[in-house]
Automatic annotation (TrEMBL):
GO terms for molecular function: hydrolase activity. This is Alpha/beta hydrolase family protein. Residues 325-501 form the DUF1023 domain. InterPro entries: AB_hydrolase_fold (IPR029058), DUF1023 (IPR010427). The lineage of its organism: Bacteria, Bacillati, Actinomycetota, Actinomycetes, Pseudonocardiales. It comes from Prauserella salsuginis. Keywords: Hydrolase. Residues 547-556 have a biased composition (Polar residues). It comes from the Bacteria.
Length: 578
């Protein structure tokens, strides 16, 4: 078994340096084999001497074949092992950076030493920080375990190849007709395995992050290219890698849905005529659902790729899920892997990928720009922002069969909450640092967000709720968010925020709960020459627009407040009520 102290001392540079000389030896052997082949049976030479010479040349070629196979195996193994060591070392580096950033350390035996809540932590945040640290410790344990598992795999694979080389058991391929063919056989022997990913269905965020951290750059690219379905929807993997995989999946998902529609159409023809009306109606509903999913894929593609099908700069497709009744997706503006401030927006009722995704992504892009403007006003130009629209659940839709039951039972919010919590944690786990993260939930999305923050540790630093029918609590202090970092907006004429009987079902009115800042939605002048507009109704909280002939955008008061919260500088200036 490889220990943590062993892995810390690993260095693949010696193996990398040996690849060049092995390449030269390999090429010299190939050339020598060609020369021997030319002199093996010179024209016009016959007799016993010629036969003896030919036999000897054959023996030499065979010996060279074995040697070529061994060198090819060594060359491949040295290249793969050096590359794999780089991945393992990356896993070590990331684990130690996470440990240091959170006041832990990793002992030589791989155990996690807890040095306590940092002394400079404010008293009112110590409890929340302690709870967050318990989550981080679990993540660190997973990272260490996966690093050591990968290290054992690399060590065992490399030793097996060396045993074959040193034990003269490299198969030079008895059917090979050239040294090059023997070299190809040796290359197969020298190949190493890639660490198997944790099960996609029940892997934790920490397990996903730990597995990905131990892969080399070449191994990651291979997984993205060859197995994008194993990468794109794994919380804990960097957003850029998830996006690359998910963009690759769009065509395959479209083809699968098109084939499904053709299959259903064939079934409909079989069930046509008298007596088949009920079955035909069922098939028609299935076809309509598949066609809606195709429309959703088209909406995703328009949002994240250009007209040539290439990924758009500044867009990341962090989720693409075609299972269930409707397509789920998450699209980011900016670079979630590097941004200092990340905000995740969860939309509410009647939200669908095919009809709403593009508008939401535009709204959150405007919110990102506004937050960056506020950073500039504070002379913090070096800080960056990313926003994410998360439609990773299926909000209730307005239809005679579903909306009443969905609103009364809250099933969609309860089912979506764990997924949203995993998504938050995945952003944290995919990075060695700890970004300042804001959760923003609108309408039914605020209830989903409330359940996620109430029932799970997520790493969220700020939480905002607007147009909310309730968040599943009677006090903001029930949420796993630092104290005094929860905010709520309720605009005039917002009927959803005051549906009789529904608010009580999902907890006390959000703007009346203790531990939650009630933020204004009225017109406001936050600075000389700067003006915001009042929000009214249920859907204006995040709206912004450029006035004709103006270069600057006019923001809603609520959006201005969200931007300030996102950068960690909330504005609590009282705003006159109407």
């Amino acid at each position: 078994m490889v220990s943590w102290s062993d892995v810390k001392q690993w260095n693949g540079s010696a193996l990398a340096e040996a690849i060049g000389p092995l390449n030269r030896e390999y090429n010299e052997l190939i050339n020598a084999g060609e020369d021997l082949g030319k002199i093996q049976s010179p024209d016009g030479w016959s007799g016993q001497a010629a036969q003896a010479a030919g036999s000897r040349c054959g023996e030499l070629v065979e010996a060279l074949g074995e040697w070529t196979g061994e060198i090819a195996a060594a060359r491949t193994a040295f290249t793969a092992t050096s590359d794999a060591i780089g991945g393992v070392k990356n896993g070590v580096t990331e684990a130690e950076e996470v440990a240091k950033a959170n006041n832990f350390s990793i002992a030589d035996d791989g155990s996690i030493a807890d040095h306590g809540v940092p002394a400079d932590t404010p008293q009112d945040q110590r409890e929340a920080v302690a709870e967050e640290r318990a989550r981080v410790k679990t993540e660190l344990e997973e990272r260490v375990k996966n690093v050591l598992r990968s290290a054992d795999d690399v060590d065992n694979d490399f030793c097996k190849v060396l045993d074959k080389i040193l034990g003269d058991t490299v198969d030079a391929d008895s059917d090979a007709t050239s040294l090059a063919a023997a070299g190809k056989a040796g290359t197969k022997v020298g190949s190493l395995t890639i660490p198997t990913p944790p099960p996609l269905s029940d892997a934790t965020v920490a397990q996903n992050a730990a597995w990905w951290a131990t892969l080399s750059e070449a191994q990651r690219k291979r997984f993205i290219q060859d197995f994008p379905g194993q990468v794109g929807n794994r919380d804990g993997i960097p957003a850029s890698d998830r996006s690359a995989a998910n963009v690759l999946r769009i065509d395959d998902e479209r083809t699968r849905l098109q084939n499904r529609i053709k299959q259903l159409q064939a079934e409909r023809r079989e069930h046509g005529g008298p007596g088949g009306v009920g079955e035909e109606m069922t098939i028609n509903r299935k076809i309509a659902r598949a066609e809606e999913k195709l429309d959703s894929l088209a909406a995703v593609e328009r949002t994240v790729t250009d007209r040539h099908g290439e990924p758009k700069a500044g867009k990341q497709l962090m989720l693409l899920d075609t299972s269930g009744e409707r397509v789920k997706a998450a699209v980011a503006n900016g670079d979630v892997d590097k941004a200092d401030h990340v905000a995740v927006f969860t939309p509410g009722m009647n939200s669908r990928v095919d009809t709403n995704l593009d508008d939401y992504v535009q709204d959150t892009d405007a919110l990102k720009r506004h937050a960056e403007d506020e950073l500039t006003r504070e002379n913090r130009r070096g800080e960056s922002v990313a926003t994410v629209t998360w439609l990773g659940y299926e909000p209730p839709q307005t239809n005679p069969d579903g909306i009443f039951e969905a609103v009364v039972t809250g099933d969609s919010a309860e089912e979506g909450a764990p997924k949203l919590a995993e998504f938050y944690n995945g952003i944290d786990a995919s990075r060695a640092d700890n970004p300042h993260m804001t959760a923003l939930g609108h309408s039914w999305g605020s209830l989903t967000q409330g359940y996620a923050l109430r029932d799970h540790e997520t790493g969220v630093d700020e939480a905002g709720f607007f147009g909310s029918p309730g968040i599943g609590t009677d006090s903001g202090k029930e949420l796993n968010v630092p104290e005094n970092h929860v905010y709520a907006w309720e605009a005039r004429e917002d009927a959803v925020a005051n549906i009789p009987g529904v608010v009580e079902r999902y907890g006390k009115d959000v703007v009346e709960q203790d531990g939650i800042h009630h933020m204004s939605t009225e017109e406001y002048e936050p600075a000389p020459g700067q003006r915001t507009e009042a929000s009214t109704g249920h859907s204006e909280y995040m709206k912004s627009e450029r006035s004709q002939g103006q270069s600057s955008e006019v923001y809603q008061t609520s959006e201005y407040a969200m931007a300030r919260i996102m950068i960690g500088s909330p504005d609590f200036t009282p705003v006159p009520e109407p």
